[in-house]
Design goal:
Radius of gyration: 16 Å
Shape: elongated
CATH class of the largest domain: Mainly Alpha
CATH superfamily of the largest domain: Winged helix-like DNA-binding domain superfamily/Winged helix DNA-binding domain
Keywords: DNA-binding, Transcription, Transcription regulation
Number of strands: 2
Pfam family, one: GntR
Helix content: 40-55%
Strand content: 5-15%
Number of helices: 5
Structural class: mainly alpha
CATH architecture of the largest domain: Orthogonal Bundle
Strand order of the largest sheet: 1-2
Protein name: GntR family transcriptional regulator
Length: 109
């Protein structure tokens, strides 16, 4: 899936670190310059941001509320992962917190 599409669909949330240009080029079988040019175009379109040696990350997009929710979702995902919570269970808990019903293992508080 293209990075632009993954960002638009929410599959890649704000703050997600992207592969290095060299790693992505190798994975896709493309020239490094082709991937570098694509990253530059994505950065020009404000879809990604490069933070020097730290790498490239998905940029916060949309309205201020949307950007804040993207950041909160990324923090939630990072925290769930650090706690060793299965992604399906984490989603069930988030759905319950939003009042969207509960799944297996989710208990609203």
């Amino acid at each position: 899936m293209r990075i632009r599409d993954a960002v638009a669909s929410g599959e890649l949330a704000a703050g997600v670190r992207l592969p290095t240009v060299r790693a992505l080029a190798a994975e896709l079988g493309l020239a490094v310059n082709t991937v570098a040019r694509s990253y530059r175009e994505l950065e020009t379109d404000a879809l990604i941001e490069t933070r020097g040696r730290l790498g490239s990350f998905v940029a916060a997009t949309g309205s201020p509320a949307h950007r804040e929710l993207q950041a909160a979702a990324r923090a939630f995902a990072d925290r769930a992962e650090s706690l060793g919570v299965d992604p399906t269970e984490a989603l069930d808990l988030a759905r319950a917190a939003l009042g969207l019903g509960t799944g297996v293992g989710a208990t609203p508080e």
